[in-house]
Design goal:
The chain is mainly β and 213 residues long. The protein is built from no helices and 26 strands.
């Protein structure tokens, strides 16, 4: 484990072996960070956040309460998570400042294993980013993202399907609102094969199987 001397790590933060915490990071507790992770400079992790193993979090990332991040996730620079759909600073009569602790308005967000979030993206609350999904840089995600879908834009929508390796293996045509059913599509980079039925991607190659050229 490596923690930069300028980082602020509260006592109730659990950090796994092999994880590196870079300069001016602030980790609030209680929270949990897995093994072999990287938390980039000037990033903030709120209390109650759970981060899996082998996660890369780049610089200037804001991760608020209610966020769970699975194994092998990539969170690029400047990503912002949210946890309140209709936030206010004060009570309706404006006489009392609302606290920063989780309350009945706090909504959970889950990032499943293998997902990638591009630089500068904003992630809405109460949604899930599916396994090995990908969010394009600068996107505003307002609804759930299906596994292996690549979304982009504001609001983000599916523009392609991506392999476990990150390479797109199908691009939606301009007039397509939904994915067509596909019996078999292969990634031209690594050879892994997929099928699509009713917008749901199914892996045809068992995970971990070596694909020969």
């Amino acid at each position: 484990m490596s923690i930069h001397p300028t980082a602020i790590v509260e006592e109730t933060v659990d950090i796994g072996e092999g994880t590196s915490i870079w300069d001016n990071v602030h980790l609030r507790g209680p929270s949990s960070i897995g093994q072999d992770c990287i938390i980039g400079e000037k990033s903030y992790v709120a209390c109650g956040v759970c981060i899996g193993d082998r996660v890369k979090i780049n610089a200037f990332v804001y991760i608020c309460n209610g966020v769970t991040i699975g194994d092998g996730v990539m969170v690029s620079a400047g990503v912002i998570f949210t946890n309140d759909r209709y936030p206010r600073a004060a009570t309706p009569d404006l006489t009392t400042l609302r606290g920063s602790d989780p309350d009945e308005h706090t909504q959970a967000t889950r990032v499943a294993q293998g997902a990638t979030i591009g630089a500068g993206a904003v992630i809405g609350c109460g949604i899930e980013l599916g396994e090995f999904s990908m969010v394009g840089m600068g996107s505003v995600v307002t609804r759930a993202v299906q596994p292996f879908h690549l979304v982009a834009g504001n609001p983000a929508r599916t523009i392609a399907l991506v392999c476990r390796c990150g390479n797109p293996f199908y691009h939606l045509k301009k007039k397509e609102k939904d994915l067509p059913d596909i019996r078999k599509a292969a990634c031209d980079r690594c050879g892994l094969e997929y099928a699509v039925h009713r917008n749901v991607v199914q892996e045809l190659t068992p995970p971990g199987r070596k694909v020969l050229p």
